[in-house]
Design goal:
Elements: H1 5-8, H2 38-47, E1 58-70, E2 75-85, E3 89-100, E4 104-119, E5 122-133, E6 138-148, E7 152-161, E8 166-174, E9 176-177, E10 182-193, E11 205-217, E12 223-234, H3 236-244, E13 250-261
Antiparallel strand pairs: 1-2, 1-13, 2-3, 3-4, 4-5, 5-6, 6-7, 7-8, 8-10, 9-10, 10-11, 11-12, 12-13
């Protein structure tokens, strides 16, 4: 799907969720404990038995969840995040974006959240999001929640812009361990808007959906190149706007990328 920058901006660096212009609307907020596998997470816990909710703030992780190239359109995208704090109170920073090697950066988003662990595998989020590209840019207040058990991750957020525009996002993926170093990760995202936003080329209702399947291999600890397939589509009134502009609301592409954590 090839979508103009004005259309991509609304569909929510949820952060450097195959980026074609349509995928620029993805604004994924990454989970807090993206270990490469549960055994690895358990090993880290064993090394740090004294860590507790009362421990002082510290850097918990930096995650390059996605640094990706789509050969068919010669486009790139990224999702990177960092988490500071203790087991209960945390501050999350993230960036995501995409563009074309021949045309420069198309989309740039920054996130800053306060995250509160409320028990089990759940966290509540409250913070800010800034969509700096394309123009007109948007700034949002964010409320949401995330579930992460080390394999399944689910996130849901609501966004209220400074223009009074309400939107929401639901996203999820699952890390399936095939062998000791090989993982398969299916995932999806769904975005919706409470009203038409003509300045961004967004229509009311369900506006955007994306699904993907990526297979990665950990060549050394916490460094895993991957190959995958990404599908995305504008929906409903947004798709009508895209077609009226003479563009295709659907995109299918093979992607190559790298994932790393430290």
């Amino acid at each position: 799907m090839t979508v103009s920058p004005s259309i991509r901006a609304g569909a929510a660096l949820a952060l450097l969720a195959a980026a074609t212009p349509a995928a620029a609307k993805r604004t994924p907020v990454l989970p807090y404990a993206l270990a490469f596998d549960t055994a690895d997470a358990a090993a880290r816990t064993a090394v740090e038995p004294e860590q507790s909710a009362s421990s002082g703030p510290k850097l918990q992780y930096v995650l390059l969840d996605r640094f990706e190239w789509a050969p068919s359109g010669d486009t790139f995208s990224w999702d990177v995040s960092a988490l500071f704090g203790n087991d209960t109170d945390r501050v999350y920073f993230g960036s995501s974006g995409d563009g074309a090697f021949s045309g420069g950066l198309d989309y740039l988003e920054l996130n800053a959240f306060y995250s509160r662990h409320v028990g089990g595998d759940w966290d509540l989020n409250a913070g800010l999001r800034a969509d700096l590209l394309p123009h007109p840019n948007r700034f949002y207040g964010v409320l949401g929640a995330q579930y992460d058990d080390g394999k399944l991750w689910v996130g849901a957020w609501t966004y209220l812009s400074t223009q009074g525009e309400l939107s929401a996002r639901l996203a999820a993926y699952y890390n399936l361990k095939l062998t000791g170093k090989l993982f398969l990760q299916p995932g999806f995202e769904l975005d919706a808007y409470g009203e038409d936003i003509p300045a961004l080329g967004i229509g009311r209702g369900f506006a955007y959906a994306e699904a993907g399947l990526r297979m990665r291999y950990e060549i050394v600890e916490h460094v895993a190149p991957y190959v995958g397939f990404s599908w995305s589509r504008d929906l409903g009134r947004t798709a009508e706007i895209v077609r009226a502009a003479g563009e295709d609301p659907e995109s299918k592409t093979v992607v190559l990328g790298l994932r790393s954590e430290f």
